[in-house]
């Protein structure tokens, strides 16, 4: 009997050991999303950059960067929706604009996310940082909306936002696949200003801030509203990085791989770098970018100290282009969006062409560069390939399998096309060298935002991005066959509800 017991114990231990080894073959995944960082902010991608980014530069030399990567939208909320769901946000209830701090949850109940997919396949999942995807706030009065008008744009001075901060959120990151979350509700310029850990306020928002305007300094704007007593805007970025490091330290002793979604609040306005960062030649914005680079370096160092860096895929990208104005360029001679036309929110390439860097020592060759056209929605299908699991049914409708581009195994273009979307809801479609925008004007922040074609003028724009990357020469009339092809394809993607061409 004793022999049989020992035999059974040995079998159990062997099974456990095999299970652990299998789990360890799955890489950890750390997805760092900067907020409003431009392609030209990174010093190794822009030789004329006035900002020093040594940690991102090192990541590029040790990994891969994409020259033609795009966010699925030119602004915050819809891009975040696309990253986590693998689906264009224009298919959701949000047809233009962004959410606010009091907005309801955008991700539909029951919709698979990257986090829920990975959790279902053996991963521990965490979201630390800026959420900005809407929340299900608990109400004091069920008959009234939260926020002053239900939009969160204005708050009564008597603090009556109708939120019960003592209760757990009815909808938050934990409802969409995350085991752990530590977040702020939206951008650092949108109330309420507070931290939420695991769908519960750390300190209730019982205080009030009158906010700031741009008249107090470029990049200082933040809206008036509720806040937790003692909430320190300068410490939000360091707070999230410290929490991320704590999470990584904890996972180093786990027998499960982890997915860490780390959406940073920087360098979005308000620009609030801590006192140690004052040396940039691009002003306060540059200081904030340099602090962001430093903080990313701390995360990479934590992975190294815990011997996790070898089997961890780290991705650093941005939710859209930089909100760098022509006046900022004139003042600093820094081109945050490199040579691309426009700025954040625009349908022009500066609105959605983003830095995209990945490091994975066991799979990605150091110093690699990819010219593959790719989109932030591609994360979902790519991680499915990484863990060798099929995508869930009715999920990741606009996500393509980019793993061959990461590893250098790609033999032909992966994506058929990308749909771009601006703040104001203007569409564009990019296929190969060609980009067709369906309306005139930026559709975002750059003036003119909207234009009506005069008699005889082209009603749309068609650019050859290979020969005209700055979008100067409209070939709408010269290439009617391309206009027809792209218009038809865009309409197909919109009406059919999906664009993914691979299984």
Automatic annotation (TrEMBL):
Gene3D superfamilies: 3.30.1120.10, Alkaline Phosphatase, subunit A
InterPro entries, sorted: Alkaline_phosphatase_core_sf, Sulfatase, Sulfatase_CS, Sulfatase_N
Pfam family, one: Sulfatase
Signal sequence, renumbered to the chain: 1-21
Annotated keywords: Calcium, Hydrolase, Metal-binding, Signal
Gene Ontology molecular functions: arylsulfatase activity; metal ion binding
Residues covered by the Sulfatase N-terminal domain: 27-386
Similarity comment: family membership: Belongs to the sulfatase family.
PANTHER family noted in UniProt: ARYLSULFATASE FAMILY MEMBER (PTHR42693), ENDO-4-O-SULFATASE (PTHR42693:SF53)
Protein name: Arylsulfatase
Origin species: Candidatus Pedobacter colombiensis
Lineage: Bacteria, Pseudomonadati, Bacteroidota, Sphingobacteriia, Sphingobacteriales
């Amino acid at each position: 009997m004793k022999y049989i017991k020992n035999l059974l114990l040995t079998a159990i231990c062997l099974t456990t050991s095999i299970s652990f080894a299998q789990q360890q073959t799955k890489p950890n995944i750390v997805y760092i999303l900067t907020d409003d960082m431009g392609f030209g902010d990174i010093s190794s991608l822009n030789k004329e950059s006035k900002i020093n980014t040594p940690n991102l530069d090192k990541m590029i030399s040790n990994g891969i960067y994409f020259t033609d990567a795009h966010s699925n939208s030119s602004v915050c909320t819809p891009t975040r929706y696309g990253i986590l769901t693998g689906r264009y946000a224009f298919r959701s209830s949000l047809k233009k604009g962004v959410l606010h701090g009091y907005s309801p949850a955008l991700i539909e109940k029951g919709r698979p996310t990257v986090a829920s997919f990975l959790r279902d396949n053996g991963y521990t999942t965490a979201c630390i940082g800026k959420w900005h995807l809407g929340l299900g706030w608990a109400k004091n009065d069920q008959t009234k909306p939260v926020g002053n008008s239900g939009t969160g744009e204005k708050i009564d001075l008597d603090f009556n936002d109708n939120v019960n901060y003592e209760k757990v959120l009815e909808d938050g990151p934990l409802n969409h696949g995350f085991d752990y979350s530590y977040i702020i509700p939206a951008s650092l310029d949108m109330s309420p200003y507070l931290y939420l850990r695991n769908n519960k306020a750390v300190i209730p928002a019982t205080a009030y801030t009158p906010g700031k305007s741009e008249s107090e300094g470029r990049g200082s704007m933040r809206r008036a509203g509720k806040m937790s007593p003692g909430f320190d805007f300068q410490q939000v970025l360091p707070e999230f990085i410290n929490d991320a490091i704590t999470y990584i330290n904890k996972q180093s002793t786990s027998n499960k791989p982890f997915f860490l979604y780390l959406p940073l609040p920087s360098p979005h306005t308000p620009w609030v770098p801590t006192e140690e960062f004052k040396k940039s030649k691009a002003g306060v914005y540059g200081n904030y970018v340099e602090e962001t680079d430093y903080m990313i370096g701390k995360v990479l160092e934590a992975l190294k100290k815990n011997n996790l860096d070898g089997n961890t895929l780290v991705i650093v990208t941005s939710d859209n282009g930089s909100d760098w104005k022509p006046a900022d360029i004139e003042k600093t001679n820094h081109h945050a969006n490199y040579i691309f036309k426009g700025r954040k929110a625009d349908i022009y390439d500066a609105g959605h062409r983003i830095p995209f860097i990945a490091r994975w020592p066991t799979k990605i060759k150091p110093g690699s560069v990819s010219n593959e056209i790719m989109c932030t929605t591609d994360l979902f299908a790519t991680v499915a390939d990484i863990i060798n699991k099929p995508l869930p049914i009715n999920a990741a409708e606009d996500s393509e399998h980019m793993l061959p581009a990461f590893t250098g195994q790609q033999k032909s273009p992966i994506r058929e096309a990308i749909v771009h979307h601006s703040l104001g809801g203007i569409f564009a479609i990019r296929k190969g060298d060609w980009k067709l925008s369906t309306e005139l004007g930026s559709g975002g922040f750059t003036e003119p935002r909207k234009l009506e074609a005069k008699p005889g003028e082209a009603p749309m724009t068609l650019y050859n991005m290979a020969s005209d990357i700055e979008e100067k020469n409209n070939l709408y009339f010269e290439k009617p066959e391309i206009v027809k092809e792209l218009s038809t394809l865009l309409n197909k993607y919109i009406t059919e509800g999906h664009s993914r061409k691979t299984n």
